[in-house]
Design goal:
- The chain has 8 helices and 7 strands, in the order αβαβαβαβαβαβαβα.
- α6 packs parallel to α7.
- Helices cover 41% and strands 15% of the residues.
- β3, α4 and β4 form a beta-alpha-beta unit.
- The chain has one domain: TIM Barrel (Alpha-Beta Barrel).
- It is α/β, with parallel strands linked by helices.
Length: 236
């Protein structure tokens, strides 16, 4: 279990440090020198922290082609209805796929669902959404975050604007409160809190410092991954 969490933590760590250095939130000791010009070269290895899985042969084939070309791996976010196929895809490509289960946090069976996906081999939970009457830090969700921490399952909640137009219950600041209560829970939030970028950045900076002595990341924010960056994308 520890080995599995370490692998996910390492992947998330690469993502967060790159983002913090680029954004200016990283401490000076995290960099060897300050570059006046951005480094636009293609990295030798990419970890995509946010890719929605599509249970289709064409999508899987396209994923393998693109991620092989760019020497990349991805956290794939698998809907509950596609758990079996998504896990089979992950097991077939362990050097390329880190599977997350997109549990529904308002489901009456959510705690059982979390235990189930853990047994299936999923490495984290996401993408998560607070689209009803409660924000992420509402007591209704406390058992979810506690169980995820206990089972060493990182969470990937959506932050900021959603396609439905909702956003107020998914502000990044709510996740800072969760991180404070659950110091061993890894949180890597999606979309950097759009439009609350400052809130997301400050939450990242403060929380990262708080737990850096433990070697753990309490809270980070990430953009979606290499699909658009590659200029090719994975076919829908």
């Amino acid at each position: 279990m520890r080995k599995g969490l370490s692998a996910v933590s390492a992947a998330v760590g690469v993502i967060v440090m790159s983002l913090l250095i680029v954004s200016g939130f990283a401490p000076l000791s995290a960099t060897t020198s300050y570059a006046a010009e951005p480094n636009l070269s293609t990295p030798g290895f990419i970890i995509d922290s946010h890719t929605h899985y599509n249970a289709a042969d064409e999508w899987e084939k396209s994923f393998i082609e693109v991620y092989t070309k760019w020497n990349a791996m991805a956290i794939i976010l698998v809907n509950m209805k596609n758990l079996d196929r998504g896990m089979a895809f992950a097991k077939a490509h362990p050097d390329m796929v880190i599977p997350y289960a997109a549990i529904e946090i308002d489901s009456p069976t959510v705690l059982d669902d979390i235990r189930m996906v853990k047994k299936m081999g999923f490495r984290g939970l996401g993408e998560l959404f607070a689209l009803n009457e409660w924000d992420y830090n509402h007591p209704k969700y406390y058992p979810i975050w506690a169980l995820a921490e206990e089972l060493e399952l990182p969470i990937a909640p959506h932050t900021g604007i959603h396609a439905s137009g909702q956003m107020s219950r998914m502000r990044p600041g709510y996740l800072a409160s969760i991180a404070a209560k659950h110091p061993n829970l890894i949180i890597h939030a999606a979309h950097f809190g759009n439009p609350w970028y400052n809130e997301a950045g400050e939450t990242t900076r403060r929380t990262l410092r708080q737990w850096s002595a433990r070697g753990a990341i309490g809270f980070i924010c990430t953009w979606s991954g290499i699909m658009g960056m590659s200029g090719e994308g994975v076919k829908e």
